[in-house]
Amino acid sequence: MKKRSFESVPTISYVPNLLPDELLYSYLARTAHYNCFGNPRDCLGAFWGTAGIIPSIDLPTALGRLQRRLGTDSPFQSLQAMIDLGTMYPYHRPFLSEGRHRQIQKILADGGGIALKTRLGRVANGFGANPSLRYCAKCLAADVRNYGVPYWHRLHQLPLVTVCAAHRTRLDVFLQPSQSAHPQEMHLAPVKAVTNGPLLAVDPIQLNFANTCRELIEANLPVLGPSRWQSAYLAKASELGFVDCNGRVLYDRIAEELRDRFDDFKSFDYQQRILSSAKTPLAWLRRIFGRPQSSSHPVFHVLLMEFLFGSVKEFLSEVEKPHASSKKNGGRQGSSASPFRTMLPNEQLRDESISATQLAKQFHLSVGTIVSRRRAIGISFTERRKRVTLKLVRRIQAALTAGTSVQAVAGACKVSLATVYRIRRETPGLLNRIQRSLITRERKRHRNYWLKVLAMHRSLSVTGVKKLAQACYAWLYRNDRAWLVGKNAGVRRQLTRPSARVDWRKRDADFSKRLEKYHQALSRLPDRPRISASLLLRRIGDATVRRNEYRLPQTMAIIKRCSESVDQYRKRRIRAAIDKLNDRGIRPDLWRIARMAGLKSWSEPLRDYALFLIEN
């Protein structure tokens, strides 16, 4: 069979105007509709000259070829205008490095989009690489009234935005990427909104987030460079008290304030992804402040920008200001060190002819930091302690070695926490001695508690006592196993008794009840698997039931009644596929039904069944 050439595809006869805030994907879908390109491959051949492209909703590639084929009919003056006005790339671009921006720009222009969203950090950040198509019901009505046609708005497709900023209404999802019958098909916006359920109130947090996202993409910012936006964030965070005197970002405090400001992100999709983990809440803050060269999703920047500055305009004002950290970095982008942390040359640190005050001014550090670093490498200083005498230092060291907490030592010796931490840091080997002391105290405490529990429950075996003091047993087992084994050697052993006979009538009733509940729960799932006998048996113990079928008559009757044959399962999938296609206003062709129902081939009875459902 001769391969079809796309040079024979009819040319584009009519090109519509680009509408305000229209997505390039929407413009191409309308153009294909006006020119009656029914087959998606014909559509791709007309636009790109090849069928080897899957048109992306937010970040389509090979746009240089598309611009050349549209020629003078293109609504965009240049390739760059097509990227800036028709795609989501202006939303990502400000937070990329210059090198990463050049790579992405080349992919957008020349194609090869397999690694596009990976390079943008969309895959690693876990928010999903393929967005769903969303629309605002009021925008649809306004578009039909003003322009005679509905279309996809770029602002409605922004990640995690669920509210229309213009009309203050919730967005409806038209199509998920996985639900498309053909991955190369470009879908038109619905003429009339299909609202499922009652209208929900708009969350003001989501509304503010949508407005900030709109400001960002409409600003059409160039590459700002990691050093510039990182310096702006740090300067504002320092101004608001989220950076200590040593230039360290107080991550726990800023995370707590962010969670309070956005109500724990309850109104956001991917809430758990934003919250990160309980151990490291809002872990993306550490990447933005400490490792700006790593790609972070713009959503994180928008959240931080809204929290620190309130608007994109205020953020840009701060970016334009000269910061000391940018000068120290020499304008380099992607430096892994924090701008407030300065690497002090070891030669100058050891040069005693340079005073601590001079070094502090030269490297923008405090005099105390220089003194502490010099003491750590063995350089002596003339003691000029005000009220921290040598006797008091010895007392603090002894208290810390004994395992007393820093707070208790500071209170007992009437000094600040910073003084105690400094003495602990500058005393060689003190941390190791404190650690050994703490381990000794913990060992003594757990030993005494284990002996106390053994004495109180002499009638129990080791297994029984272990259930009463699980944490203590686990600690001793990991850290003091020899002592634990020796003490447990004299404890009485628990004799195992044979289990009583099984009440099969009671077990049969229990299995029946569990299967009924399980079957009801499965029946409520819209995309449930085939309810086979094996699936039901696995719920209650496959091997036990199969060996004792004659003892479980009620259970076997329920399995026979509730299990689903392969033909029944396929017919259920066909019914569901036809219902979905009808709900979306798509003609239920057999190939569409087979694709959505996951059928590899049609048998004659199944084909007749599908045709019967279509006709009726």
Write up what this structure looks like.
This protein is mainly α and 616 residues long. Helices cover 54% and strands 2% of the residues. The protein has helices at residues 24-34, 40-48, 63-70, 79-86, 89-92, 98-110, 116-119, 137-147, 204-219, 226-239, 251-261, 271-275, 284-290, 298-308, 312-320, 324-328, 346-350, 356-363, 367-376, 390-401, 406-413, 417-426, 430-456, 462-468, 470-479, 481-488, 504-523, 533-540, 542-547, 553-562, 566-583, 590-597, 604-615; strands at 133-135, 163-164, 169-170, 172-175. It has a two-stranded antiparallel sheet. Strands 2-3 form a two-stranded antiparallel ribbon.
What's the helical proportion of residues?
Answer: 40-55%
Uncertain ranges: 1-8, 325-342
Main β sheet profile: 2 strands, antiparallel
Largest sheet, order of strands side by side? 1-4
Ends: how far apart? 38 Å
Query: Mean pLDDT score, rounded?
Result: 83
Assign the structural class, choosing from mainly alpha, mainly beta, alpha/beta, alpha+beta, or little secondary structure.
mainly alpha
Shape: flat
> What fraction of residues sit in β-strands?
under 5%
Structure summary, number of beta strands:
4
How many domains? The number is 7
Radius of gyration: 34 Å
Count up the helices: 33
